[in-house]
């Protein structure tokens, strides 16, 4: 039997996630944010050749119902679609799963109960890495969807690290942050950057020492600094955690450790 034929036969067998070394990405919320996460996953991987990069499966399901609508106004729950994605990734051999959507983390406990493999928390990764990177920061400007703010997940995590979260006033949250998120999803990046500016100025004026781009759309229009404040990117924090964990998994050829 040829090596190619043997490979196809093996691929039809039930995968062993613990030995696969595959990173699963539960994405599509939105597609551009998912693509940004994958680019950062590649960037954060210490590799000098193709073969040293992580094996990755990206499930980008843009039909997942709006997470903020589900949290705020009894919109359709995204949970069935998210569970479907987790099941698909597991069946395809994912050993760990990363979900680059802050608002969807409201459903993380349910997803973890249904998953046989670890699902990383972008919020845990962010607050831990933010504190390590900026030990003197005591107040941050938290820019996120209204759904994410209502869950209080970032605020609670930051508070455990001794950091206060400053958020825009409700009207500005809608007219600036949520409008910017919608514009980014529509591909209107320049207009989104302009729409977001008043919210950035608001939290900066209230004493924030750093901006946290706690919606995975926002890093698409925020650079490393804005209003003379550093910007912390949770998408990068999640990528860093995924790389760190994936590099501890067995190498797929079972003959050598990861570089």
TrEMBL record:
InterPro entries recorded: Asp/Glu/hydantoin_racemase (IPR015942), Asp/Glu_race (IPR001920), Asp_race (IPR004380)
One function term, GO molecular function aspect: aspartate racemase activity
The enzyme's E.C. designation: 5.1.1.13
Entry keywords, A to Z: Isomerase
Keyword Isomerase found: yes
Matching Gene3D superfamilies: 3.40.50.1860
Protein family membership: Belongs to the aspartate/glutamate racemases family.
Protein name (record): Aspartate racemase
Organism (species): Streptomyces achromogenes
Lineage of origin: Bacteria, Bacillati, Actinomycetota, Actinomycetes, Kitasatosporales
